Amino acid sequence: MSLLSVDGLVARHGLLEAVCGVQFRLEAGETLAIVGANGAGKTTLLRAIAGAHPIAAGTVSFRGEDVTALPAHRRTAAGLALVPEGRRLFGQMTVEENLMLGRFAGRTGSWTVERVMDAFPNLKERRRAKCSHLSGGEQQATAIGRALMTNPELLILDEVSLGLSPLIVDRVYEQIDGLVREGTTIILVEQNLSRALEVASNVICMLEGQIVLAGAAGTLSRDDVTNAYFGLGRVRAHGGTP
Amino acid sequence: MIWLNQILQGTLLGGYYALIACGLSFMYSVMRIINLAHGSLAVAAAYALFVLSDTYELNPFVALVIVLPVMALVGVALQRLVLERAKRGGTLVPVLATFGLAIVLDNALFQLFGADTRSLAPYIDELSYASWQIGDGLFVGELAVMTFATAVVMLGGLQLILSRTQVGRAIRATSEDPDTVGLIGIDGRRINAIAAAIAMVTVGIAGFFLALRATFDPYAGAPQLIFAFEAAVIGGAGSLWGTLVGGIVLGVAQSIGAQISSQGFLIGGHAVFLAVLLVRLSGPLGTLTAIRLVFRRSRK
To answer: Strands A80-83, A154-158: parallel, antiparallel or unpaired by DSSP?
Structure first.
């Protein structure tokens, strides 16, 4: 039984079909990177999986149970946590308060405020600071920590490096590496191809709402992914102009 | 001495205004809803207390213990049946919906109880007029002090709930970003229902003190709403301790107005409210310019 299976998923923004019939499986312990150009439908796909975007057609199953009709908070309670694009922290609340909110999911596990502080030492002295006063890296760490506080079985990270300096991105990825080693199942969207290929065990490349390439990270060359990323492979396969 | 007395009485009166403004301010700050049925709901609670005290001969304080949980349920129903649906239509629709609800409530109360004015004062023995002497010629009503103390405890309690409890944190998070709370396992709908229930419990307490200290009739909701509104706006809409300050400023302004002229009670309050609003909207300098313009025009 796969931890997550997505079948024929369709999600729309008004008339625009942002995700058109996406299908994939994810086993426990895997790290899946979703890559693709801007507007390929990656964020919408993640939000639809997490329950933050309505699903027009298709199903999402988590641990063998159909969660398609469940609201977001029930999916979080089932063990699926999304760190949304742009972090979406509660800016008027402190770091500690933001973290403590994760307990609402009602899941037991090893994540506590202290453990998040140990995982992200840069948060220690900012514990009582309002989130709107934090730097980008601190905000990202808080957002990931808040999701971890729900003790998820599947952690979904949407563009965690967006707007961060390369140095801070390195630090965030060190933490993600740590989570991967502990066996946390992760889906991540990343604009930086080499970083995505480095951390992931599996890669999916999206183009215009569809999966154009999927495979184990080791079996795909950078060129394969780049071609799929820009839709070049598709042109070749059709043997002419699109 | 007479001025000191007016300020003292005005401050205590401000406690009542803070009490009635509390729920309005809470609802606005955590749910972004302006509840125009606020005053009518307080009067409805007052009628419920009156029926329990008059028909069932319960002590009003015992009646309050029964009415408050009912008000909490009223809050949940209000959120689920009216506010939640209205809010989907935009920010203005809840204002219209609660305005309509106020009309329905007022007239339903009129249909049920007629036009007679009522009060709970006859059911609390000497508490309705008893007072403590605190100085030469200075008296404070026991009920007024109790009202003020209740306001402080209630506002402080709400502040504690919001800052220290898990539910309070969820309420604040939901008010800040209702779309994101689901992602961390919080049921935003349930949290809003809890917040509405808390707001309605404060409305029930306000209705209790309204009925103890004065008389009310089916249409008494609108003036209560205006006082609540003025106190909330003077104190800075949405700030809980500001609401207490706003209530006190309103109460003192009314008392001083009444001392200046026997007709000045309401005018004093409204004048301060308008002045605060003007300064809020255009800043102190803008206000000065506006006043200068008015004077220049009136001289011509």
So the answer is: parallel
Tokens of B106: 């007022």
Q: Are strands A185-189 and A31-36 parallel, antiparallel or unpaired?
A: parallel
pLDDT, tens digit, 9 for 90 and up, residues A90-141: 988 999 999 999 888 888 888 889 988 888 888 889 999 999 898 888 898 8
Confidence (pLDDT) at A7? 94
Please state the rounded mean pLDDT for residues B191-199: 95
Could you report the per-residue pLDDT of B248-289, keeping only the tens digit for each?
999 999 999 999 988 889 999 999 999 998 888 877 777 778
Question: Burial of A134 by CB count in 10 Å (0-12 exposed, 13-18 middle, 19+ buried)?
Answer: buried
- pLDDT on residue A241: 44
Report the gap between the CA of A241 and the closest CA in chain B (Å).
42
Give the pLDDT of residue A240: 42
Sorted by where each begins, the domain ranges of chain A are 4-238
For testing the chain B interface, which of A46, A89, A101, A128 should be mutated: the one with the most B CBs within 10 Å?
A101
Range(s) of the domain holding residue B170 = 2-299
Rg (CA), chain A: 18
**Nearest CA distance, A149 vs chain B (angstrom):** 9
Q: Please give the helix or strand (H or E) that residue A69 lies within, else none.
A: none
Report the predicted TM-score, pTM, of the whole model to 2 decimal places.
0.86
Residue B188, CA atoms < 13 Å, CB-side half-sphere: 18
Question: CA angle B146-B129-B123, nearest 5°?
Answer: 85
H or E element in which residue B58 lies: none
CA distances from B226 to A206, B9, B29, B270 (A): 57, 20, 18, 10
- In chain B, how many domains are there? 1
For the beta carbon of residue A175, count every other beta carbon within 10 angstroms. 18
HEC per residue, A182-228: CCCEEEEECCCHHHHHHHCCEEEEEECCEEEEEEEHHHCCHHHHHHH
CATH H-level superfamily of A4-238: P-loop containing nucleotide triphosphate hydrolases (3.40.50.300)
**Containing H/E element for A18?**
strand A16-26
* DSSP one-letter code for A86: T
- Among A43, A46, A90, which would you mutate to test the B interface (most chain B Cβ atoms within 10 Å of its Cβ)? A90
The position carrying tokens 């008004």 is A14
Q: Cβ contacts (< 8 Å) between A73 and chain B: which residues?
A: 181-182, 185-188
